[in-house]
Batch of 2 targets.
Target 1
Amino acid sequence: MIPCGHVERLSQLHIDGQLGPKQSAALQRHLSKCSRCAAVYEQTAQLDRLLSEYMPAVEPPAGFVDGVMAALPANPPQVLRPPVVRRRLRPAAVIAAALVLAAGVYGALQLPVGSSETALLASGGEPQPLAWQEQAAEPQPVFAQADVTPEEKTAPAPADKTKTNTNTNTSAAPVRTQPEKHTSAGSGGEASYNGKTDLPTVAYSNENVGSYSMVLLAAYNDYDAMRPHVQGHTVSYYLRVDDTLQLWQTALHDGQDPSFVETVDSMPGLGRIAGFKDESETYGYAYYSAAAPDGVSRAANCGGEAKGIYVSSAGLEGPGRLVSNLGGGQIISWGDNNKFLFTDENGLLHVYYVAENQELLLYANSVKSACWGQDGHTVVFSGYDAVTGHYNIYAASLP
Amino acid sequence: MERLTDEQLAILVLAGDSQAFAQIVERYQKQIFALAYRLGGDYDEAKDMAQEAFIRVYNEMHRYDPNRRFFPWMYRVAHNCCINLLQKRPKETLSLSEAEEFRPSQNETFDPEAQYAQREFDENLNRALQQLPEHYRTPIVLKYLEGLSYQQISAYLGISQSTLESRLFRGRNMLRKLLKEDLK
């Protein structure tokens, strides 16, 4: 006999055609004997019908396939070109385009009607402080890395370059960084890389946090630069070219062009984040937590009804304090005892400073993977380039 | 004749077999059309956008890695293409009432009272949907509006089928509570 507590879930699966014959029969038996569960089933079915009617299937017009085939180019898909390193620095443009794109990411999966702002912020209830589940902190690794596979994120559409505007802001995420000064890069324009050892940087400031600089380490017109990791001053990353996976390296500070290292069979396993724990399955929504190197402070990135970033500095058992509503992301890792990285539900990369109680948007576009350098101040990440539609490798030096 | 998998068809396309691409279009025209319609909100525009999206998929086929699942890759390329096209079009807003004009009529007879009730419910449902967290709303939209299967949704979102089940369950459960009055 199926317990009543399982009926609602099984009813939905049955209505969706996801239940096997045995379970379906068991469900039917239960429903025939339990009027309360039968009412639950009927209500579930009613909602399903209403949703189907509310969002009716739209059919393409007759002859659609023929129309597509007639419009295809005469030549078959092109053969891949070998990768060409596109080394350039245009951080101001990158940031501005990313800000523009943030709105696109934000709105990408909205219905064509209704208020998207309400939708993004709604969490279905007041965020609740969470109690920490984990007991002990693991030792700090050489570098902490997390990765989100390409399937897990929706890459936003490439932005129209003409829309780049350094003054553009967006309601998609609070942007607290404002351009302050440029050393070499022109405001909003592209600066060509001069091959010298001093990389031009663009500095951003935040009145309470300080400033950071960000440089573009590697970019390709046709490939995603993936899963960077740092050892000393060397940044390694991967490119998938044709059917091969290639390991490339570049220097963190000296401005050398990236160099091909070797073809590899697979990317290494994900780097371990100190004290990291994924309890998403337990909670039914994104729930990642990580301990600071001191083993006392903890941070959690939560989705669902409790969406937000929570920090506890009162020991491992203490309740978390909500410090930001930008939860629902994928990674969280500490650079030192005062700051940690996280992504929000749109994949944008943020850093949070505990003592200052400040959150800083580090990259206003989708980030595929990120890691800390050994100094605990440098963040290297694979970030989406709105212009090329591919991921580049960036390094940010934080205060 | 044995039905070829998406991945097998993609390999044939890469080998120059354009008819294999016709099979891909045939197989996914409804989903891509629904995607374009959902993003653009206009039937005629959806036709052009969906066509453009398939052409983009064809032109981007050389980037497809046959070792990976084809559908999520194709859907993402089509999604990006539609977003790109929408960014280029003149800015217009589509109101709820305008959007409703394109919905197939459920009842040919004119019944103002029923229409009013339907509109009121639609507004309540839309409001309730907007209140759902994104990761609950998206699977519901993909399932009902774009007609994707469990397998396609989980592949596209990069989540396991059990996670998807859980999200659909929680999302609809929240909807049911939010629409309690309407579902009486």
Target 2
Amino acid sequence: MSNATFTSRAAKSLRNSQLRRNINKATTTIRGKTARVTAELPDWEALRLAGREIKRSTLAELDKHLIALEESVTRAGGTVHWARDAAEAREIVVRLTKAHNTDQVIKIKSMTTDEIELNPALEGAGIRPYETDLADMIVQMGREKPSHLLVPAIHKNRVEIRDLFRDQMGSHGEGLSDRPTDLTKAARAYLRDKFLETRVAISGANFAVAETGSVVVVESEGNGRMCLTLPDVLISIMGIEKVLPRWQDLEVFLQLLPRAATGERMNPYTSIWTGTVPGDGPREFHLVLLDNGRSKILADEVSRETLHCIRCSRCLNVCPVYERAGGHAYDSMYQGPIGAIVTPQLKGLEEAGSLPYASSLCGACHEVCPVKINIPQILVHLRGKVVESKRETALGKLSGENMAMQVASRLFNNQQALEWSLWAGRLGQKLLTRDGVMPWLPPPLSGWTLSRDFPALPEQSFRDWWKQRENGK
Amino acid sequence: MSSRDIMLATIRHAISRPAPDGLPAVPPPGDLPAYRRRLDATGPEIVDRFLERLRDYNVHVEVLDSEAAVIAAATARLAALGLDRLVIPADLPAAWRPAGVTLVEDQALDHQTLNAIPGALTGAALAIAETGSIVLDGGRHQGRRALTLLPDYHLCVVFAGQLVGLVPEAMDQLGRHPARPITFFSGPSATADIELDRVVGVHGPRTLDVLFVTGPTQPREF
């Protein structure tokens, strides 16, 4: 496990009151809107079930659907590339971009390109990537990491954003005020030049339809339409789990996603394109199918449904842990409850083993998920794996947690030993108990009381009370 | 082995294990939970819902009782906005072409030229009442995507006969030509990226006006 854990990162972000205010405002607002527009559909529950069933049956025959997608995209004039991991995906995109002798690309918000760390690879190859989603552009200009799936710059205030724009937008940033309308206007003018002059665009994909080869991007700002329409070349990168078998399946997800994500009946812009069309849009289209750990998730029967996720971020907005700790504590482009299950599975438990513990298991995420992913169950499953993998190391065997569990296991198997230890415990706890709880335990149990109290043993155990009652009869 | 073969082999191995809850791996066809595929409402109710949604989005709508009223309405609206130049798809009907403005037919105009034109006038493929969406698919009277993207103003003619109730009804119709480039727009582009303040009009046309024709409609064609 890396040295910085969720707990240590959260401890830092909890001290940032601006961040907590912003996140609280964001999550409260979006929660209200999503609740309203999901409640107004009489068939919302049926849509969720349909979404889950479509995802489940698609994953069960994923190989077949990917082959069908490859065939239909190729038939429509596109080219399909297969990338086993992030390095291979980066190599494909850099190679395709370089083939067009360009030193800049425009990008649509895409978590998949963040996941494969595409931007540093492009920069390393002498290609400058321009993020065109407003928040992503702000995060990129500030050389930071996103803090929310949908509103990645939620940790920044308007003055900070104005300073970034003044600094980096050339003439479009001169004398800029900090009013959001002025900032947005400046971004429009600055990016319009980029849209018109850049020949290669890079996007993610929300859905891709195997039977037709159609790819879908949903968005709010219109930068997506610009990138999908104006350049000569379009490269789209999608996780293999994004494929849908049939055109008809879109009718379910185009209802689920906007209502669960931003609380809109429909997002402002949805683009669906199929290969290339003469005289309309890019002349060249590449679709990169990315595994990068997804098939490993698919192989685990319990956590398989992690791959149902349509990246709506509704689970973030209802999560009490996310609302307080903020997105950066998850140290990943996938945050909140879904991040707590996606990241450890993509990056490995050694790297992100603290994330499955970033939850109180309250279940709010499962309750609202538009495709009904049982996030708490997967969290517990992953916690089990973390403990198993820790026990395999010598240090893990000697850890306080493991020793305590071993001792507890013995005690609970032996009545006399248990009674004796309870008696000893009642004697020993006297010095540590305040108001019925022990706020601090000595090592090796001190880890438990770092963030919670340990309830003191009552004066009399149930067994003792029972014995006394029997005798008194 | 190619990456493709390795990925497919890995996936096949991964899915060879059954689901733990004993559910069949693939639900039988037609077994999807019954969500609504048609809106259970009368024609006027569907129109009302659509217009209400557009007003929610602050879209300026004019309801016309016949196609013959399009020219007058468009001319007046453009004059009110002070717009004097519009790009139009080459197949835009003469019966929709407003007077008193320069109309530039799109004959493969380059992007810079399109970008310098302040507005566009087109028809639509269909519209969805439940979501207030207007859908373009590059078919009749709509032009290519850049035409309704680069100008800052879009005037769109929509017929009541093109209106459907729900998203599934729209996808059924669009599915007849899925290879066409399709754009849904539902309200103006917007962002809440700066302190969650909603700012309307980021990229694309910042103003969308709709002429909604309820009367005798042009023949439906997909």
